[in-house]
């Protein structure tokens, strides 16, 4: 049984902006089952929940059935389960069923909650329903003091993202819209500001004078499995690059924010996106693991990519001339996400027995699993003919900083308390679609690769003349090479 007493972390937010009611559209869906109930339970355990929670979905079930499903979902995640904590959470839950495209549902909702509540409406729904739900909420007079959080994907290209923004902005102010990207809730991503700017050791190295190139990898060791029909219409570029990896890149590359305000961080991220030229299809590799087209829901002869690798540049004073390589894929050997920066090489060392240049140092930020930071240095190995040897200075955030806050736990609390720093802004969403637009228009050849490999050979050709792709730094494994 888990403990009911736990130190309360500072998750930010503003007390005067805290939502009086959380309304979750799609509370009977996969996201709620896998993530949301667990996040709410953890917030309840930390005593960070204040108000009631109203679930809305099409399933004709009782609130008792919803509570039962919530308990099963939390236990299924492996979260230590405390009956007292769950009992408090269960008392907050209520339920309303109906068709989200039917105006009658919103009339019932208005009767249930009143028009003057400060609510957070969390839309765990297909993106095609974002605008209709918001428009119905607006017609029912339920948005004046409220915020709306929407899950990714936010559009499927630049035109559709602009259209969705226009429809939402016709009803809401920008500061009422929270565009969720769960990567922005991951501890090492959220803490990148402090790692970069609070440590002179890193801050003085973090530019084109010291860094030669940047690699970002997001690898998954599983395939599409039971998500064939969804994934086949999306592909790796839309699924994880346009959102997750570009958001991470912005945090890696941005200038220090000028203040703690909601827009200070997003202003600096937007500056990075604006400085990135549109991706060049000549520096883009698409792959598909063998057996993908056998998955249920995948079209015969599908050309949807399950692996991508691409090169980008940032044309500003800090990063001009530093190539940035991104890769992401399914059915790879490991599940790991990391950022890897390679320093420039030092001149040949005349005092060594064999005059030569040392290997580059590396800075590695592991986002998943077991978040941590590695500084990879080189030293002389006297036992092996004065050869170079890697020396690793590693930090595991869980060991050094304590239990990490889960992404949806952090994001839900930020959304409920009006902290917009962890959510993507309208201009950034449109800029990221602009960056990948040429790759959507000119998809190019698709290369087959074996499950359990690191993708097609063409991905290695992409980095020819630069540092090769590295074996990721994994928890309790051997060193990268």
UniProtKB/TrEMBL annotation:
GO molecular function, one term: NADP binding
Coiled-coil region: none
Pathway membership: Carbohydrate degradation; pentose phosphate pathway; D-ribulose 5-phosphate from D-glucose 6-phosphate (oxidative stage): step 1/3
Annotated GO biological process: glucose metabolic process; pentose-phosphate shunt, oxidative branch
Entry-linked Pfam families: G6PD_C, G6PD_N
InterPro entries: G6P_DH, G6P_DH_AS, G6P_DH_C, G6P_DH_NAD-bd, NAD(P)-bd_dom_sf
Entry binding sites for substrate: 182, 186, 220, 239, 330
Binding site for NADP(+): 58, 99-100, 152
Record-annotated Glucose-6-phosphate dehydrogenase C-terminal domain positions: 194-469
Keywords: Carbohydrate metabolism, Glucose metabolism, NADP, Oxidoreductase
PANTHER family: GLUCOSE-6-PHOSPHATE 1-DEHYDROGENASE, GLUCOSE-6-PHOSPHATE 1-DEHYDROGENASE G6PD
Function comment: Catalyzes the oxidation of glucose 6-phosphate to 6-phosphogluconolactone.
Similarity comment text for this entry: Belongs to the glucose-6-phosphate dehydrogenase family.
Protein name from the UniProt record: Glucose-6-phosphate 1-dehydrogenase
Species name: Mycolicibacter terrae
Gene: zwf1
């Amino acid at each position: 049984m888990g403990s009911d007493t736990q130190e309360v972390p500072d998750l930010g937010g503003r007390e005067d902006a805290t939502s009086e009611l959380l309304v979750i559209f799609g509370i009977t869906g996969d996201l709620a089952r896998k993530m949301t109930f667990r996040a709410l339970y953890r917030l309840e355990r930390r005593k960070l929940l204040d108000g009631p929670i109203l679930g809305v979905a099409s399933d004709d079930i009782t609130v008792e059935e919803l509570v039962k499903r919530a308990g099963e979902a939390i236990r299924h995640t492996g979260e230590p389960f405390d009956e007292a904590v769950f009992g408090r959470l269960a008392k907050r839950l209520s339920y309303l069923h109906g068709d989200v495209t039917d105006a009658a549902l919103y009339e019932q909702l208005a009767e249930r909650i009143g028009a003057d509540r400060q609510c957070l409406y969390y839309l765990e729904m297909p993106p095609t329903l974002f605008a209709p739900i918001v428009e119905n909420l607006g017609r029912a007079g339920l948005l004046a003091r409220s915020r709306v959080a929407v899950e990714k994907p936010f559009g499927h290209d630049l035109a559709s993202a602009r259209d969705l923004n226009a429809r939402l902005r016709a009803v809401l102010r920008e500061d009422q819209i929270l565009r969720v990207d769960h990567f922005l809730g991951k501890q090492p991503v959220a803490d990148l500001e402090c790692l970069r700017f609070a440590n002179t050791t890193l801050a003085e190295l973090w530019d084109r004078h010291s860094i030669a190139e940047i690699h970002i990898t997001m690898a998954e060791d599983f395939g599409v499995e039971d998500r064939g029909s969804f994934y086949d219409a999306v592909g790796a570029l839309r699924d994880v690059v346009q959102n997750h990896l570009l958001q991470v890149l912005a945090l890696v590359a941005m200038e220090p924010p000028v203040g703690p305000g909601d827009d200070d961080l997003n202003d600096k991220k937007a500056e990075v996106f604006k400085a990135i030229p549109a991706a060049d299809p000549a520096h883009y590799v698409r792959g598909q693991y063998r057996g993908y087209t056998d998955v249920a829901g995948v079209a015969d002869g599908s050309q949807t990519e399950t692996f991508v690798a691409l090169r980008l540049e940032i044309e500003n004073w800090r990063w001009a001339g530093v190539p940035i390589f991104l890769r992401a894929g399914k059915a790879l050997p490991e599940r790991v996400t990391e950022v890897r920066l390679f320093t420039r090489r030092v001149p040949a060392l005349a005092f060594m027995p064999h005059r030569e240049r040392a290997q580059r140092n590396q800075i590695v930020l592991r986002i998943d699993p077991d978040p941590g930071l590695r500084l990879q240095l080189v030293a002389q190995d006297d036992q092996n003919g004065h050869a170079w040897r890697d020396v690793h200075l590693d930090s595991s955030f869980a060991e050094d900083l304590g239990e990490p806050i889960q992404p949806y736990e952090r994001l839900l609390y930020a959304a409920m308390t009006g902290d917009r720093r962890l959510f993507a802004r309208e201009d950034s969403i449109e800029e990221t679609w602009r960056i990948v637009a040429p790759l959507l228009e000119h998809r190019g050849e698709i290369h087959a690769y074996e499950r359990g490999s690191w993708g097609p050979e063409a991905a290695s050709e992409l980095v020819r003349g630069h540092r090769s792709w590295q074996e990721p730094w994994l928890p309790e494994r051997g060193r990268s090479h």
